[in-house]
Amino acid sequence: MSPRHGAGLRGRLEQFGLATVLTFLDLERRSGQVLVVGRDRIGRVCLRAGQVISVRIEGSRRVNRAALYELLAWDSGWFAFTQEDLASAVDEIGQPTTLLLLDAASRFDEAAAPAC
């Protein structure tokens, strides 16, 4: 599978992690979809004005926050952002992208901390 034709932003997760991509799209207030492909799995992150409004991983029960946390842990694969008008899409998360990323970073730090 290769990145979609017409993708406005694309690259390898080894070079730019998903958190970096989402931070950039948040700063730019972009609306559309980030397709993330890695380890034979496909994830989709929908954004409206830079805010993550829904997240899905094909073949997984995890959705929204849980799916985003999983996608953020992917360290290989590729991403492609395609701008779309998602003005009428439902915001299933209801939290700014920055807070989601801070929460994810905190979870990763806790998981990596040695047990006492």
Question: How are the SSEs ordered, and which strands pair?
Answer:
Elements: E1 9-12, H1 18-27, E2 32-38, E3 41-48, E4 51-57, H2 64-73, E5 78-83, H3 97-112
Antiparallel strand pairs: 1-5, 2-3, 2-5, 3-4
Detailed description of the structure:
The structure is a single chain. This protein starts with 8 loop residues before the first strand and ends with a helix. β2 (32-38) and β3 (41-48) form a beta hairpin. The mean pLDDT is 91. The chain is 31% helix and 28% strand. The protein is built from three helices and five strands, in the order βαβββαβα. It has one domain (9-112).
Name the descriptors.
single chain, 116 residues, 5-stranded antiparallel β-sheet, 3 helices, 5 strands
